[in-house]
Amino acid sequence: MIDNSTEIALSLQGISKIYGPSCPACIQKTGPEMGTNICPECGSIVACADISLDLHAGEILGIVGESGSGKSTLVKCLYFDLEPTYGEAYLSYYGNGRLNIFSETSQKKRYIRNHIMGIVYQNPHMGLRMNFSCGGNVAEKLLTADCYHLGKIRHRASELLTKTEVPVARMDDLPRNFSGGMQQRVQIAKAMANNPPILLLDEVTTGLDVSVQAKVLDLIKSLQWELGISMLVVSHDLGVVRLLTNRTAVMKNGRIVEIGLTDQILEDPQHVYTQLLINSLL
Amino acid sequence: MIKQIVDSRKDKGYNFAFIDEQAKREIRRKTLKAVAIPGYQVPFGSRELPIARGWGTGGLQITLSLLGPDDVLKVIDQGCDGSVNAVNLRNLVVETTKIATTLDTEEATIIQTRHRIPEEKMTGGQILVLQVPYPEALRIVEPSEAKTRVMHAEMDYSKLWVYLYEDIVRWGGITIGARYPAMVNKRYIMDPSPIPRWDVPKLHMADTLYLFGAGREKRIYAIPPHTEVIPLEFEDHKFRVEDFSGLSCGRCGSTSSFLDEIFDDSSGQKTYLCSDTNYCDRRLTGLAQRKGNARNDR
Fold first, then answer.
1. Which 102-121 residues of chain A touch chain B by CB within 8 A?
2. Phi, psi at residue B231, to the nearest 5°?
3. Are the beta carbons of B130 and B210 closer than 8 angstroms?
C-alpha cells in the first residue's frame, strides 16, 4: 500500500522470481554473499529476490548490475510479461495505491499495461510488431485505450514520431526496414502514445552507436523534463545511469546490494561489489 | 438397383434426422450455450456425416439437431436453392426425416444457408443456420488458437484494429469483402461467415435467431434476436456495404438486392442478376401477376 501523503508513484515490496521447484532454502542459500543465484538444495534459479524499492513521482531511478543479476526479470515482472513468485507492487495511479497489481485479474493487468505503463525493451523486436507500419505500432497502443478515430490516431502518431525525431514521411514504412537507433525511437514513441505516467526502460541504448545513443538519452531526459514521467531505467552502463538518473540501485545475484543517490554511489560506493563495478570503469 | 439399395437402407432405418438422439442433445445444449453468450464460439463434438467436413457439416448438424416432423426446411447456397450443394443437403435431410421442404423464404421455419442471408426480412418464428468455414475472426492476425482464445477472454482486440488501420493506410480503405468482423453485444468480435458486407447489417437487432456452425473447426456460435451487432469501423471511416448504384437485376429489374456479376465469354458483356434466386423468382411472378391484374382491369 502506498501512503498518499508521499509522492511515491510505484512501490515494490519483496518481489521474487524463482525458476524451478523452489525450496525453503532457496532465498537463504543464494545471493551476493553466497556468490550464486542457483539454489544448492533444489537447483532452482533465483532470478531476483526480495526486491523492495520506491519510485517517486517524476523521478528517474536507475538499476545497474552485471548480466544475469535479475534487472530485466524485475522489469518484465512489472510489465506482467513474467509472473513474480512472491511480492507485491502498488501504483499510486491505480486504486489509490491500495491494490496489489499482481493479484488483479488479467483484464485489469491489461488495463494497467495499456493506460499506466509504457515499456521500451532492449531489443526493438520485442516491443514492436515488425510487420505493422510505424504508425500502426503507435496506433496499436492508442487503440487499446479505445481511441477509434483514424484522423486523431494519425495526428498523435506523427506528433510522437516528430518528438522522437523519426521522419514523419516514413510513418507508413515498416520498422523492419529501419536502423537500430530508429527502431528504438519508434519503440519510445509507441511506449509514450497514451501518456503513461510510468515508463520502464530496459537497456535502451545497448547496441547503438554513440551518437545515436546520445540522441536517445537526450530524448529520454527531455521527456522527463517536459512531461514529468517517472522512469525505471535498467542498464549495465554506468555512464547512462550517471547521465539520466537521480537515484540508483545496484543489483547482484538477484538482490539489491546498495541503493542511494547516483552521485553518492558513483563517488563513494559502500558495498564491495559496487566498488568493484566502479573500479572496473575504463 | 440404386432404388433397391435405398429401400434396403430404409428397412435398416436411419434415426430421425440421421444423427443419434444423444448427439443431437449435445449439439442442442451447445447451441443453447451459444445463444446465452452471443458471439462466443462454443466447442462441440462435430459428428461424422455422409458428407465431407468443409461442405456444410457444421450448419447441417445444427439443422438436423433442431428439426422436428412439422418443420419446413429451405436450403440455399450463395442465395441459390438449386446449386448442387444445396440440393444434396436437402436430399439428405428429406431422406432421413421425410419433412417438407420449400424454396419460399416466408414459408420456411428453418433455413440453412451458405454465404448469404435471404433478401426478404425474416421473422421471429424462423431460424437461419449459417455454414461457417472459419469461425475465428482473429485468425488473420493471430495463427494460434490458444492465443486467440485468451484474446477473446480479455477482449484484447487491438491487433485486429491495427490490421484495419493498416488496411486503410495502405489501400485507402478496408479491403475485407466477405467475412467482415463485427462486434456482438459489445463483447465478442465474431466472424459472420463469408456473407457479403451487404448482409452484415441484417444481423443487427433482427427478429430472427441466427445460428452459426463450423463442422471442421468444431464450433457453434449464435446471434439471438434483438442483439446489437456492429461491424468494426473507425469514427471517421465508417463501414460500407457493396455499392450497386446504377445497376439492376437483368431478370427482375431489382435495384435493391445484392447482385451477382455474370460475364458472358463470347459476347464479353457483363450482366447483373439477383444473388437470391427465390427473391428474384417471387418478384418476377409478382410482376407478372400485377401485369395480369392490370390487363384484367382494362
1. 106-107, 110
2. -60, 145
3. yes
Q: Cα–Cα–Cα angle for B25, B27, B33, nearest 5°?
A: 105
- Parallel, antiparallel, or unpaired: how do β-strands A247-252 and A230-234 relate? unpaired
CA distance A52 to A67: 20
What's phi and psi for A94, nearest 5 deg? -130, 120
Q: CB–CB of B118/B198 below 8 Å?
A: no
* CB pair distance less than 8 Å for A140 and B237: no
Contact A172 B159 (CB under 8 A): no
Q: How many CB atoms lie within 10 A of CB B183?
A: 19
Give dist(CA B128, CA B26) in Å, integer: 19
Q: Which of A115, A146, A148 to mutate to test the interface with B (most CBs of B within 10 A)?
A: A148
What residues does each domain of chain B span? Answer: 21-135+196-229, 259-297
Smallest CA-to-CA distance from A276 within A230, A242, A238, A228 is with A238
CATH 3.40.50.11310 fits B21-135+196-229, yes or no: yes
How large is the average pLDDT for residues B162-191? 94
ipTM: 0.81
- Give the alpha-carbon dihedral of A124, A125, A127, A129, to 10 degrees: 120
Rounded CA gap, B1 and B14, in Å? Answer: 20
Residues 6+ apart with CB under 8 A from B156: A110, A144, B150
Contact A172 B169 (CB under 8 A): yes
Give the contacts of B35 (CB within 8 A, at least 6 positions apart). B209, B211, B222, B224
3-class secondary structure, A6: coil
State whether residue B172 sits within 8 Å of chain A by CB. Answer: no
The CA–CA distances, whole Å, from B210 to B80, B101, B207 equal: 19, 19, 9
Q: How far is CA B247 from the centre of its chain?
A: 25
Long-range contacts of range B143-146, CB-CB < 8 Å, 24 or more positions apart?
none
- Tell me the C-alpha to C-alpha distance, in Å, between residue A71 and each of A64, A65, A68, A242: 7, 7, 8, 17
At A136-157, the pLDDT tens digits run 999 998 998 888 999 999 999 9
Summarize pLDDT for A108-141 with one digit per residue, the tens: 998 898 889 999 998 899 999 998 999 999 999 8
Query: Which grid cell is B131?
Result: 455454414
Which candidate, A34, A42, A35, A1, places its Cα nearest to that of A18?
A42
Give the tens place of pLDDT for each residue, B141-160: 999 999 999 999 989 999 99
